[in-house]
């Protein structure tokens, strides 16, 4: 077997994914499958760092997420799909890394400060929340990941991971490679209200949403606010529909939208209908895939169980090396 580079990434299970997740992250994961050995997991322990009081929904959210991964094109045979909490070695490694991670590094993490300021409805003065990047480091180095596809917001976490790895290797010998972020340019996806597509804004279009509701959301979506009437010229750069055209339509159509929006050669209704010609079939393809997967829940469980086993096998080898290096 040729040794392909290891890629690891995870997502917190928050339920069904939307087009922002698809074009921001999943399409990159799908592409990475070609030339890497990929591990993609549900970060259910990470979900607890902020949602410790609502644990009942995690498992269903996780199922929906895995279904979406596969509907988006993740091949569960080629890539390993697994659940963070089902690889207990993750916890052991996180604990050991905690012994050498300075508090100052964690306290300075930009997302630590930011999330604490934004989620004011709950107490986040918690050990687990502070340790988020330590757990994340364990997630990736347990598999000796070289490349970690993440959004820009996670790059600081991975920088911390690299520092933790350097410190570990310095104390105990070269056990881990330094994981590097893979920042593939993510397509911009704007929600139906003109803001960034996000579940919490209630402006998203889910993967595999039925044609009717996809159509309804697109036809009702905010466009360039300057185009109040059909004859008003517009600016596609400020319109979410244009960014979706860039993802779904061919270059000729994108150029057609670009030119005719600016001259009021087309109306927004024409523009949206043109988009739906491409978007609807893709949504339908994912809807059918989702439905087929959800109809066979046991198969899905088996698949994740196989993934858990594969991940665990790698994790056990690494942990044997870690214990030996640390003389434990
Ligand atoms: N922190 C990531 C997020 O919120 C999720 C995550 C947890 C992750 N562990 C990871 C991503 C390891 C990449 C690698 O999106
Ligand atoms: Fe947006 Fe298209 Fe309308 Fe221009 S014509 S504002 S790109 S929907």
Give a description of the structure.
- The protein is mainly alpha-helical and 328 residues long.
- Helix 3 packs across helix 13 and helix 11 (240-248) crosses helix 13 (268-295).
- It is built from 14 helices and five strands.
- The strands form two sheets. The chain has a three-stranded parallel sheet with strand order 1-2-3. A two-stranded parallel sheet has the order 4-5.
- It has two domains: 6-188 and 297-326, Rossmann fold (3-Layer(aba) Sandwich), CATH 3.40.50.620; 208-291, Orthogonal Bundle (Tyrosyl-Transfer RNA Synthetase), CATH 1.10.240.10.
- The mean pLDDT is 96.
- It has helices at 19-32, 44-51, 58-71, 89-98, 103-107, 110-118, 127-130, 132-141, 155-172, 211-220, 240-248, 251-262, 268-295, 297-325, and strands spanning 6-11, 37-42, 80-83, 147-149, 180-182.
- The longest helix has 29 residues, at 297-325.
- The site of iron/sulfur cluster has 14 residues, from helix 11, helix 12 and helix 13.
């Amino acid at each position: 077997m040729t040794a392909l580079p290891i890629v690891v990434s995870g997502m917190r299970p928050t339920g069904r994914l939307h087009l922002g997740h698809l074009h921001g992250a999943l399409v990159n994961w799908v592409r990475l499958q070609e030339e890497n050995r990929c591990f993609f997991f549900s970060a259910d322990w990470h979900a607890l760092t902020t949602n410790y009081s609502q644990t009942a929904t995690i498992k269903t959210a996780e199922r929906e997420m895995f279904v979406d991964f596969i509907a988006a094109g993740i091949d569960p045979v080629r890539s390993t799909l697994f659940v963070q909490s089902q690889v207990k070695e993750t916890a052991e490694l996180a604990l050991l890394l905690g012994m050498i991670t300075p508090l100052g590094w964690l306290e300075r993490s930009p997302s630590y400060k930011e999330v604490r300021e934004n989620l004011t409805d709950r107490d986040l003065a918690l050990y687990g929340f502070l340790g988020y990047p330590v757990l994340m480091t364990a997630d990736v180095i347990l598999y000796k990941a070289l490349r970690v596809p993440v959004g820009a917001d996670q790059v600081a976490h991975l920088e911390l991971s690299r520092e933790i790895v350097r410190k570990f290797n310095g104390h105990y010998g070269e056990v881990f490679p330094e994981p590097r972020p893979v920042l593939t340019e993510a397509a911009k996806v704007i929600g139906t209200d003109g803001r960034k597509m996000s579940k919490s804004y209630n402006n998203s279009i889910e993967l595999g949403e039925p044609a009717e509701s996809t159509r309804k959301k697109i036809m009702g979506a905010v466009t360039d606010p300057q185009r109040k009437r059909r004859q008003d010229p517009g600016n596609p750069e400020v319109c979410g529909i244009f960014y979706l055209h860039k993802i779904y339509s061919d270059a000729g159509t994108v150029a057609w939208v670009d030119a005719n929006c600016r001259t009021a050669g087309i109306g927004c209704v024409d523009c949206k209908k043109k988009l739906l010609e491409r978007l609807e079939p893709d949504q339908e393809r994912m809807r059918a895939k989702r439905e087929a997967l959800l109809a066979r829940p046991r198969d899905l469980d088996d698949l994740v169980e196989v993934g858990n086993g594969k991940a665990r096998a790698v994790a056990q080898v690494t942990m044997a090396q870690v214990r030996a290096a640390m003389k434990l």
